[in-house]
Write a structure and sequence with these properties.
With 472 residues, this protein is mainly alpha-helical. The protein has 22 helices and no strands. It has a single domain, classed as Sodium/glucose cotransporter (Up-down Bundle).
């Protein structure tokens, strides 16, 4: 047990209490459980979006990557997430909010039909199981570090706490706990960055430069890892447009304009938190020169270099960031399973009360599967990138075309999803290590090519049929 133990316990207890209290806000309505009755104001939606962007990978993983490789491996994570929020705000937030959607796969149903919705639901459920697993892994790892319990015990406890308040309040629990959790992280990381600059000056920056941590070749030379860096950035920046948890918050906004501005607000603060984490990684090069595990760099910095309460806020901020993302993703996966799979293929109608119960119950298998994956592969950074790689490869193209092109067709959407996803799986198996990164960047291009070809081919066939019919 470490000095961080009781602050972490108290933090989790407060989060659980807030989350359980939000049961009172649902009022027996599945719409309120899923999108808060589409009534959320700007600051609430923006804060909730920030909480989904800032997770264990953007904080703990960011510091670890800067310390173990270079600044770009860490910094491109918050930049990619911020760019994603800007893209969603500019091109998707308002039109999707104004459609009164309950889930993102529902958009594909309305725009392309039942078959496309099924494909998207399956792909996103697989991806977000991976996302939840990555954040449950981060939560469990932090609990095990501060308490001395095993990783497995910590994983069970962390998953149970998040599951309990997710089932209680739905999106209300996510938003209310987000508001508490993310502000702890924001204050903690900003305070830590200011403290390091004021008390340690520029010497650690010079040490990081001398160690090659700021070498620009990591962005310009394949031999220095430029391809994986850019691939990870693009996966987050563009693939995140398919983030189910982001979109639930967009749908909950009281207007399209509110949703759009909230995305921009969250983008700015994502850069602030992520930039502070990157700065902490730079300082840790000289302040924490030795660590057996790169994931221990941030805890060592928080527990040995920073003032006690600043270190506590940083540490529990990472925990809260991971909890908020796991909670949001767990919620939306249970709702997608209930609405886009169970209800869509059920012959008899489902009442609102039944849908609420079903949405809550579906969180249980979701948590179990994600928890098992976190136990099997406790690597939150790798899991996050894999999750967005898959949706980036197959689903992003039909999403943007579906929103902005009247010519988009169901056949084109299916072709894009199938070909993009298949290419990503094949590329994972055949791409040589020295070309790692191309397996992320090429499949979305193949998806786009398939979409355009099928869309234009279908339009040509329609024209020929119309001419033939007119001739008859």
């Amino acid at each position: 047990m470490t000095v961080m133990f009781w602050p972490v316990v108290i933090f989790m207890a407060i989060s659980l209490a807030i989350g359980l209290y939000t049961y009172t806000q649902v009022r027996g309505s599945s719409e309120r459980y899923t999108v808060c009755g589409k009534s959320m104001p700007f600051l609430v939606v923006g804060t909730a979006l920030l909480a989904q962007a800032v997770d264990g990978n953007a904080t703990l993983g960011n510091v670890s990557l800067v310390w173990s490789s270079n600044i770009w491996g860490g910094l491109l994570i918050p930049i990619g997430l911020a760019v994603s929020l800007v893209l969603v705000g500019k091109y998707l937030a308002a039109p999707l909010n104004e459609m009164d959607l309950m889930t993102l796969p529902e958009f594909f149903y309305r725009r392309y039909g039942k078959g496309t919705e099924l494909l998207v639901s399956i792909v996103t459920l697989v991806c977000f199981t991976v996302l939840i697993a990555g954040n449950l892994s981060a939560v469990a790892w932090i609990l095990s570090v501060v308490s001395g319990m095993s990783y497995t015990q910590a994983l069970v406890i962390g998953t149970a706490v998040i599951l309990a308040y997710t089932m209680a309040g739905g999106l209300y629990s996510a938003i209310w706990t987000d508001f508490f959790q993310i502000h702890v992280a924001l204050i903690g990381f900003v305070a830590a960055a200011v403290y390091l600059v004021v008390n340690h000056g520029t010497a650690p920056m010079t040490a990081a430069v001398d160690a090659g941590k700021l070498d620009i070749s990591a962005l310009t030379k394949i031999s220095a890892g430029a391809l994986p860096n850019w691939a990870n950035f693009l996966s987050l920046a563009v693939g995140n447009a398919m983030a189910l948890d982001f979109m639930e918050r967009v749908f909950s906004a009281k207007s399209g304009k509110t949703a759009k501005n909230a995305c921009y607000y969250a983008a700015v603060l994502t850069l602030v938190v992520g930039g502070c984490a990157t700065l902490m990684g730079i300082y840790s090069v000289s302040l924490v020169p030795k660590a057996d595990d790169a994931r221990m760099v941030l805890p060592m910095l928080a527990n040995g270099i920073l003032p006690y309460w600043v270190g506590v806020m940083v540490f529990i901020g990472v925990l809260g960031a991971s909890m908020s993302t796991a909670n949001g993703a767990m919620l939306v996966m249970s709702v997608v399973t209930a609405r886009n799979l169970f209800e869509r293929y059920r012959e008899t109608p489902v009442s609102d009360a039944q849908m609420l119960t079903l949405s809550r119950l579906m969180a249980i298998p979701t948590a179990i599967v994600a928890g098992l994956m976190a136990w099997w592969k406790p690597e939150p950074g790798i899991l996050l990138v894999i999750a967005f790689d898959i949706v980036f490869a197959g689903c992003v193209v039909p999403l943007f075309y579906g929103v902005h092109s009247k010519a988009a067709r169901a056949e084109a959407a299916v072709a894009a999803i199938v070909i993009g996803t298949s290419c990503r799986l094949i590329a994972h198996l055949v791409t040589p290590p020295e070309w790692a990164g191309l397996d992320t960047m090429i499949p979305p291009l193949m998806s786009w090519f398939a979409f355009v070809v099928v869309m234009k081919f279908g339009r040509t066939v329609e024209v020929k049929e119309a001419v033939a019919a007119h001739g008859d």
